[in-house]
Amino acid sequence: MDIAVANSGTNNIGIFLGFGNNSFLNQTTFATGSGPWSLAVADLNNDNRLDIIVSNINDSNISVFLGSGNGSFSNQTVYSTGISAEPYSVAYGDFNNDALLDIIVANYRASNVVILFGAGGGRFTDSKVYLVSYGSFPFSVVVGDFNNDTKLDFAVANYGTDNLKILLQTC
Which UniProt keywords apply (predicted)? Predict the structure, then answer.
């Protein structure tokens, strides 16, 4: 197992490759946008290699790094999450049932959640915005089938309204 961390003070992510004996190589870093805050790991392009999604709170965007399978990554591809959005949390799932992973982002300052839909090859095109509620300041998002109907749902933790909002998929 390896470890990936967001280094918000130095605007990069760090990768610690594991030896399998509870020890790791020194950190290798990859530049991100400003203020990387949250990351998620998934195989976004179906090549059996792990890729990394990073939220950059100061730039209101996310970075996608496609993995090479040897601990290195391609240059980041950047996707906007909205103007002055401050994306605090990222997760992934197939929200439109097209067998391609999508990215979901909790935007703190914008008080919304954005889903970027996968277009294949680790690329993302269309997006959909869901307003959580004015002043909610969502800071975390998780994905799961919360009502056991085989449809992917998501839950958002909100700082401003001090609550958890669950959005169930209906189609």
Answer: Signal
